[in-house]
Amino acid sequence: MARTVFCEYLKKEADGLDFQLYPGEVGARIFNNISKEAWAEWQKKQVMLINEHKLSMINPEHRELLEKTMIGFLFEGEEVKIDGYVPKA
């Protein structure tokens, strides 16, 4: 049976993640408060960010930037700005 969470991003009950996908306290917060749907939205944004800014996951500053952006997107309602990207209306 799917586990449900109150998703802080969608502001509604939704299917939760099957397991913690991100390490540490932030990962626990995501696991407990973010739905599969919201995580999938973040992953799309993350790929665009990595590609646009040529981020390397080996670089601690790049990882920190991504984590900060992820927290803003998932928990604080911040839109991810990607140059030249226009979301479908």
Q: Can you write the helix and strand succession as a string? A: EEHHH
Instruction: Name the overall outline.
Output: globular
> Do you know the CATH architecture?
Orthogonal Bundle
Q: In the residues, how many domains can be counted?
A: 1
End-to-end separation: 34 Å
Total number of strands: 2
Percent helix range? 40-55%
Low-confidence stretches: none
How many DSSP helices?
3
**C-alpha Rg (nearest Å):** 13 Å
Query: Within the largest sheet, what's the order of strands?
Result: 1-2
Organism: Psychrosphaera ytuae
Family: Belongs to the Fe(2+)-trafficking protein family.
Protein name: Probable Fe(2+)-trafficking protein
GO molecular function, one term: iron ion binding
How does this model look, in words?
The protein is mostly helical and 89 residues long. It has one domain: Fe(II) trafficking protein YggX (YggX-like, Orthogonal Bundle). 49% of the residues lie in helices and 9% in strands. It has three helices and two strands, in the order ββααα. It has helices spanning 24-33, 36-53, 60-75; strands at 4-7, 12-15. It has a two-stranded antiparallel ribbon with strand order 1-2. α2 (36-53) runs antiparallel to α3. The longest helix is centred in the middle third of the chain and has 18 residues, at 36-53. The radius of gyration is 13 Å and the shape is globular. It starts with a strand and ends in a 14-residue tail after the last helix.
Q: In a few lines, what is going on in this structure?
A:
49% of the residues lie in helices and 9% in strands. It has 89 residues and is mainly alpha-helical.
